[in-house]
Amino acid sequence: MSRRISPVIPGFGLTLGYTLVYLSLLVLIPLGALFLKTTDLTWAQFIQVISAPRVLAALKLSFSTAFFAALINGVIGTLLAWVLVRYTFPGRKIIDAMIDLPFALPTAVAGIALTALYAPKGLIGSLAADIGLKIAYTPLGITLALTFVTLPFVVRTVQPVLADIPREVEEAAACLGAKPLQVARHVLLPALLPAWLTGFALAFARGVGEYGSVIFIAGNMPMKTEILPLLIMVKLDQYDYTGATAIGVLMLVVSFILLLAINLLQRRIETP
Amino acid sequence: MTSATLTANANSARRGNPLARRLLIAGAWLVFALFLLLPLLVVLSEAFKQGVGTFFTAILEPDAISALKLTLTAVAIAVPLNLVFGVSAAWCVSKYEFTGKSLLVTLIDLPFSVSPVIAGLIYVLLFGAQGYFGQWLSDHDIQIVFAIPGIVLATIFVTVPFVARELIPLMQEQGTQEEEAARLLGANGWQMFWHVTLPNIKWGLIYGVVLCTARAMGEFGAVSVVSGHIRGLTNTLPLHVEILYNEYNHVAAFSVASLLLALALIILLLKQWSEARLSRLKSNADEE
């Protein structure tokens, strides 16, 4: 069944065996328990749990805020990647290094920092309040928190691809009389789109599941600013394990379908 | 088109529009200042609002120290385990061809697409009082959930892919020639690994470990589900920040948070350093 690339390198059985056992014990069997637990519910009960208005409101909120955060990152992430690859300017190295701060910083720290910044008395929050805009404790605040924690994804996927595009291709297009927008549309866009979609999908998936950075800024009002992961926590605190499990399964299934759709879209773009 | 306009076109394509260039750089600086720098400065300014004294009181308080110890314990167990797993997984994926390989790679990445809260939940379902093994565990007087083992398990789950993810592309690129040469010269499996493979993957390994440590240290959602929030016993540093914050003890919360921020900045420095070594290694390989 298995074929080694090279017959002289030892360790196939050992490494594959260890990898499979480790993954099974720590990831697959525990995740299996999640699906096993949902069989405590009948199909009708399961539908009843996940179609409760509070669950549907949280579902809509989690997926829409994650979508908009990924979209914002699609714009500012591409801008950052472009500037970091194409230009040399003072502070470029510092910005490049600091892009990964959201991955290194514990999400709870990000959560309280952003809340302090965007709360009505905070630095940006008070400015926004002057023009009648409320950021913290609204879906806008949740979107901004998700934008922060997922900021590196688009930058780090687009950056290497952009660096690999030979400048000669763009120059050739320009020599042949293409306007800058035509160069962007016909040269850069097709090359960057698959990487951009990967970054978008990673940011989106992370945003849907994100908990630590959101709960401080969300305000956590049921039906209004309550995200799905928080609803799972609420059910757990009420010892409603089957309810928590049903929501967890719903979340995994919806995320899986969306990621699959993005994957298919990516394949269609790569093979025209 | 004359050759003069051709050159002009090529030059303008190379340099770009100077105005657009300035605007884009200014935009990048604005995004950086607004989204990255400002939150960082807020943590520091809130932490030192009432002076250095209250800052040190907050981070030297016994509950904070025990939270720090628990965080370091979780990191010290989770990171080495995932390091060995990462090397082993990358080895079998990159050195051999077998059916189901792409499925295996997908499974390795799986924890990244599972919400941390679900990562905590699954261990509660297995080992909690009403869980599948709950009765057996309580008969044998073993506690996993709401105790340190649960925190360690949840931390391992969310950090499983980091090392493997960095090593797989690196080892695939390096191929198997050097290992084969070592074998033909008479090295046994372990000698080959220690003297040929490990030096080749060293920087990628360090890079993966740094990322893994960052996440293990800062994990919040998964740990929050299994911790039980017992002060001085099952609180990690991020959970300690949450408790202080919810008690409206904002200065203390931000003081502990700035401790975590300092650790995050150290991690960024280490990351930058290992990344630079890695890219130097790659460009050397390209020249050969």
TrEMBL record, chain A:
Coiled coil: none annotated. It comes from Pseudomonas fluvialis. It is a multi-pass membrane protein. It is found in: Cell membrane. Belongs to the binding-protein-dependent transport system permease family. CysTW subfamily. GO terms for molecular function: ABC-type sulfate transporter activity. GO terms for cellular component: plasma membrane. The complex is composed of two ATP-binding proteins (CysA), two transmembrane proteins (CysT and CysW) and a solute-binding protein (CysP). The keyword Phosphoprotein does not apply. The chain crosses the membrane at residues 12-36, 63-85, 97-119, 131-155, 187-205, 241-265. Keywords: Membrane, Sulfate transport, Transmembrane, Transmembrane helix, Transport. CDD domains: TM_PBP2 (cd06261). The keyword Transport applies. This is Sulfate transport system permease protein CysT. Residues 59-262 form the ABC transmembrane type-1 domain.
TrEMBL record, chain B:
One of its GO terms (molecular function) is ABC-type sulfate transporter activity. It comes from Pseudomonas fluvialis. It is found in: Cell inner membrane. GO terms for cellular component: plasma membrane. Part of the ABC transporter complex CysAWTP (TC 3.A.1.6.1) involved in sulfate/thiosulfate import. Probably responsible for the translocation of the substrate across the membrane. Residues 68-269 form the ABC transmembrane type-1 domain. CDD domains: TM_PBP2 (cd06261). It comes from the Bacteria. Pfam families: BPD_transp_1. The chain crosses the membrane at residues 23-44, 64-91, 103-124, 144-164, 205-230, 250-270. The complex is composed of two ATP-binding proteins (CysA), two transmembrane proteins (CysT and CysW) and a solute-binding protein (CysP). This is Sulfate transport system permease protein CysW. Keywords: Cell inner membrane, Cell membrane, Membrane, Sulfate transport, Transmembrane, Transmembrane helix, Transport.
